[in-house]
Amino acid sequence: MDDLNTTAEKIRTMDIRGAGRIAVAASAALRDYAMSLKSLPLSEFNIKLEEAAKTLVDTRPTAVSLPNAVALTKRHNATNVYDAIDEISKNAEKFITNAGEALEKIGMIGAQRIHDGDVIMTHCNSHAALSIIKTAFDQGKDISVIATESRPRRQGLITIRELNDHGIPTTLIVDSAVRLTMKEVDLVVVGADSISVNGALINKIGTSQLAMAAQEARRNVIVAAETYKFSPRTLLGEMVEIEDRSSDEVIDAEILRELPNVKVKNPAFDVTPAEYIDLIITEVGAFPPSMAFTVIKDYLGLELAV
User: Fold this and answer.
1) Residue-wise pLDDT tens digits, 29-49
2) What CATH number should be reported for the domain holding residue 242?
3) Key word Lyase present in the record (predicted)?
């Protein structure tokens, strides 16, 4: 359990960040933990497995990739512990392999939406979104990127380093410059932490700002998202919880103690309505937001909703 708790803490503190990376880390941690329980009877094994799954899922409430990865990894129909561990190990290997392959497929599908000469705006640090941009560049398209700083964690600095190392011309802007800069942009490409059944996007705080500015400027917004980032539980009317993080990410705790009449809100995500999104690029194809239910039904299974 120590290794699993270590992974959970790294996810909670964002040492492991990004919805895809969180999902892969959780799947691997749950597999490894299950393998350590082979001496238990099946009933106790299942109890311990559920406790471990809850420990992982509770670390980040918004990124649906995490509970989806855990649910897909832990499910088994075995009648003994050894078969259960075997099923769980196979589930994890399949999930991890598919997650890696999904990025390449998303890149190939999404790159078709990028034209020679395009200026692309992106937000935060999304492997899926960057896969589209890098693939288009590798195809020889003359593109450039405008990346937001993405306060307060400044994940945009990770993005500009990745783009720089790939040789892609990139401009960094502060988040509040999005609307001013949108007139220079041809296309917005962002990632996803969760996508609800109505096609709404839950992503890094500030994403809705990009989408609204793009709508005003008549620029298309495409979302890059593996299918496991769709939220089955929204089928039952459950709302995706928006994570509030520590004020320490925004202002030094010592300064805040000197300001007794000030409080800090630090929501990590916001919701972009489906009508601001033109297309969602997944590893199984490009879909309008209105087809979110089909993606959940066909590629995740409705049993994950209960």
Assistant:
1) 999 999 999 999 999 999 999
2) 3.40.50.10470
3) no
Per-residue model confidence as pLDDT tens digits over 50-85:
999 999 999 988 889 999 999 999 999 999 999 999
Is the pLDDT assigned to residue 302 strictly greater than 90?
Answer: no
112 with 227, same domain? Answer: yes
> Does 277 lie in the same domain as 163?
yes
List, in sequence order, every residue forming a beta bridge with 281; answer none if it has no partner: 224, 286
Give the active site residue among 118, 124, 175, 186: 124
- Let me know if 15 is a catalytic residue: no
Please report the pLDDT score of residue 238 as a whole number.
81
User: 0.70 cut: is pTM over it?
Assistant: yes
Q: What pLDDT is attached to residue 306? A: 62
Looking at the structure, do residues 185 and 56 belong to the same domain, yes or no?
Answer: no
Is 265 annotated to bind ligand?
A: no
Task: Show the domain range for 175.
Answer: 106-305
How confident is the model at residue 237, as a pLDDT?
82
Is 165 assigned a catalytic role? Answer: no
Of 3, 58, 193, 252, which one is the catalytic site residue?
Answer: 193
Same domain flag for 194 and 164: yes
